[in-house]
User: What shape does this take?
Amino acid sequence: MKAGPDADARAAGNPRDTDLSVSPRSEAQPSEGTSSGPPPLRPFGLRLHHDGRWSHEGEPILNRRLREHFDRSVRFLPAERKYVVTLRHFRAEIEVEEAAFFVRSFDASSGCIALSDRSEETLDPSTLALSPIDGALLCRAKRALAAEGLLARFTHGAHAELMQAVEEQGGALVLRIGSAPHPLPEFS
Assistant: This one.
């Protein structure tokens, strides 16, 4: 986002508070060797920060609805190994500082985590790790898209929900999911 005459409109919550600057798919010219499809992905300054903030060309995106839409529309493209967001018929590559998905809640009775893109899946406790940036809790998710899984970062609320299910057993910490204890990895 650039400062200028539209800054007041952005601050007032105008949903058009950033210019995605990406050609719509319908106007895309086929590249050599292909007959159709979306235009090639190129970075254009949209960044998802480790703490969930969004910015465009270094300027924070202030519009709450747009940020929430971006959170829900993050997709990983396995063939390109890139993350994108969509807005109507626009698709744009994003730079991800650490994790592209955020764990919004954890259900200790089932082990289910709810992610920022509104998907749900079962947590694999063996993938829990700490962020090298600030020590926040991370896990691996979306293994159908990448064998090693994609990083997901726990929000404060989801972290608290998970910690309520941690207990000591035989001198080690375990995560109790339902009635089953799962050993936690060593955090260093």
The chain has three helices and 15 strands. Residues 101-183 form one domain.
